[in-house]
Recover the amino acids of this structure.
């Protein structure tokens, strides 16, 4: 056993700590610069709208992952904390005297406070256990509050929801947030601030103990920490940041409806977070970006976007439980060993045919959809920049052949990829 | 006589009709190393779980430094200076070895549920955790996930977590279970080293470990203590030999 102790442990450890300080700051600076530059690259208003939605989803997904990834609590009703925060902000927008007394960028804080308030009430009884009990309570409470939207019309505005006007706030350095670009920078400011705060929170004693309680609540109790209180604090913090996301939603869309509270929205955020990867802090960020792109860009191309998003989710759960972030981080050892180049060729040989095969499957799906749902006599459809008659045999044969051949080649080359992967991961071990 | 570190009086526990612990009176003095031995199913682990509030006693009381522990939660008992390990290794497998120990230090260093301190910034926490790692000879494994350690190393880590908070009463549940001879020697030395000046209560099957470590021994058979005393006295007790020790000693040699 002593041979493992021959290295002087204090020095590399200190070097690592000192290095990690500058290393942890870099991604934030890059992210901030990227956020500032984005509108110069994507100038259209619709791109700004998509990015606003993205950053709001990022905050919400990070808040959600505080529960799911870091605290081990699976919530099926987390949309209500964002929703209630959003509704509260909307009401404040409509109180003209109050709203005119502070600048708009402050508004999301109120959303956060309402999120905290609701989370404290619900968390008081729901955080007693993690696991199934917590999941069921979250589902029940989520449904309950969503149902309240048609009962408590004064707050939730019934079926049409409530709307407001963000421009009535006190001008912020002369800015009234009339333009989409103004809202973009407001949202960007908040996404950096909220993400940084959530990251720092995960590095505090209560954040570390959230991980400990997730892994082994009993052990945590025998270290002096009440598992229940640790869960409660995570839950409340998550409610706060979800409320902030809700407040930003209110600013962005100037309308909130029952849709912001319901189980479908709660399901989407679970999907986003899991798709991105619950095991890493940045996972939900990737998930939010990818999902928002699928939701906005792909939905312009096809009515079946939700089908593809769902398939992507199922594939993630089945094949990459670590999500997209896990998939990325899997490659870190390979890069560290300097073997990344060995993987390029096998990756191309497998993934390119796989992508073509999947496009073939998508073509079949789209053609089936057109065949079944297009109005009678409308036989023409356009797919991949080609217009053809979906009621003739040839397109079906082509799409079917592309799907079969593509996936067939990918499958044949997959074993080669696996070998290359194993080699890339082990070769360096010997040296 | 000063207040004992741990005092059990009339402690009973039934699961349904089955009486597992049938009235235990035991007083363990400060800085004493006390071993509880007994055949399988005698209720040793149950007794541990009763003391640490993992189970509620059916009757009787547990006093830590004269203070009744009735109605307290495990985390509250831990804060009063009683810490335990488990028969089945109970660590945070996904976290690094260093983080396992650091988590064990948080409460005793007064961080409570703080969300305004950054753990990486605290020199006291880092140095404290490294000191514990040094003590349990795991500094070389510092940044590995705890789940990747060997069995003996995980047991050592568990002992490290148990003592890290600075508790003065340490309870170890079969610390050498399932270990080879050399590993057992290593863990025994480790226990000797880290419990210096502390009260130690341990359940143990390995008689070599028991006679090497313990100041006093209690023999638990079918939920009752049939003998308590110095190792040599217990060894000579005919009832103990009949019930347990003779057979065990024969098996040893």
């Amino acid at each position: 056993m002593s041979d493992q102790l021959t290295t002087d442990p204090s020095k590399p450890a200190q070097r690592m700590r000192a290095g990690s300080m500058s290393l942890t700051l870099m991604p934030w600076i890059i992210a901030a610069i990227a956020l500032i530059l984005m509108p110069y690259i994507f100038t259209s208003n619709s791109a700004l709208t998509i990015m606003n939605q993205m950053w709001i989803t990022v905050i919400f997904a990070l808040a959600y992952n505080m529960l799911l990834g870091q605290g081990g609590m699976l919530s099926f009703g987390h949309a209500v904390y964002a929703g209630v925060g959003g509704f509260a902000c909307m009401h404040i927008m409509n109180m003209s005297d109050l709203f005119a007394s502070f600048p708009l960028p402050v508004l999301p804080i109120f959303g956060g406070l309402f999120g905290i308030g609701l989370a404290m009430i619900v968390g008081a009884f729901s955080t007693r256990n993690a696991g199934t009990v917590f999941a069921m309570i979250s589902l029940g409470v989520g449904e309950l509050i969503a149902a309240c939207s048609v009962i408590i019309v004064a707050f939730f505005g019934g079926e049409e929801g409530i709307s407001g006007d963000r421009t009535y706030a006190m001008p912020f350095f002369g800015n009234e947030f009339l333009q989409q670009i103004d809202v973009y920078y407001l949202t960007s400011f908040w996404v950096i601030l909220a993400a940084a705060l959530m990251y720092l929170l995960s590095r505090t004693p209560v954040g570390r103990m959230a991980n400990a309680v997730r892994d082994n609540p009993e052990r945590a109790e025998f270290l002096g920490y009440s598992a229940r209180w640790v869960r409660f604090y995570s839950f409340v913090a998550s409610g706060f940041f979800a409320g902030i996301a809700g407040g930003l939603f209110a600013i962005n869309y100037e309308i909130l409806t029952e849709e912001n509270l319901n189980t479908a929205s709660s399901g989407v955020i679970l999907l986003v977070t899991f798709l991105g990867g619950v095991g890493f802090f940045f996972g939900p960020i990737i998930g939010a970006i990818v999902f928002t792109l699928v939701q906005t860009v792909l939905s312009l191309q096809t009515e079946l976007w939700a089908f593809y998003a769902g398939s992507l989710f199922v594939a993630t759960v089945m094949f990459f439980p670590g999500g997209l972030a896990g998939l990325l981080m899997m490659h870190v050892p390979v890069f560290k060993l300097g073997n990344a180049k060995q993987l390029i060729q096998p990756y191309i040989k497998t993934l390119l045919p796989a992508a073509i095969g999947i496009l073939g499957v998508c073509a079949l799906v789209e053609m089936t959809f057109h065949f079944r749902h297009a109005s009678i006599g409308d036989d023409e459809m356009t797919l991949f920049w080609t217009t053809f008659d979906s009621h003739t045999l040839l397109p079906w044969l082509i799409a079917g052949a592309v799907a079969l051949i593509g996936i067939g080649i990918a499958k044949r080359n997959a074993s080669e990829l696996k070998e290359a992967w194993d080699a890339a991961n082990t070769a360096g071990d010997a040296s | 006589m000063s207040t004992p570190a741990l005092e059990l009086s009339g402690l009973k526990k039934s699961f349904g009709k089955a009486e597992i612990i049938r009235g235990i009176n035991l007083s363990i003095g400060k800085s004493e190393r006390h071993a509880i031995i007994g055949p399988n199913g005698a209720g040793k682990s149950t007794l541990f779980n009763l003391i640490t509030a993992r189970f509620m006693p059916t009757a009787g009381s547990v006093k830590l430094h004269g203070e009744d522990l009735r109605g307290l939660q495990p985390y509250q008992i831990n804060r009063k200076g009683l810490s335990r390990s488990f028969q089945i290794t109970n660590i945070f497998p996904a976290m690094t070895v260093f983080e396992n120990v650091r988590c064990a230090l948080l409460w005793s260093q007064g961080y409570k549920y703080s969300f305004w301190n950054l753990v990486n910034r605290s020199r006291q926490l880092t140095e404290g955790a490294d000191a514990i790692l040094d003590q349990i000879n795991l500094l070389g494994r510092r940044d590995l996930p705890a789940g990747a350690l060997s069995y003996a190393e995980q047991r050592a880590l568990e002992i490290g977590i148990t003592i890290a908070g600075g508790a003065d009463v340490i309870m170890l549940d079969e610390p050498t279970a399932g270990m080879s001879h050399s590993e057992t020697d290593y863990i025994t030395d480790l226990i000797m080293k880290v419990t210096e000046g502390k009260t130690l209560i341990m359940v143990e099957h390995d008689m070599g470990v028991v006679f090497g470590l313990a100041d006093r021994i209690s023999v638990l058979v079918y939920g009752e203590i049939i003998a308590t005393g110095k190792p040599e006295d217990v060894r000579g007790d005919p009832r103990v030999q009949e019930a347990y020790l003779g057979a065990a000693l024969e098996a040893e040699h």
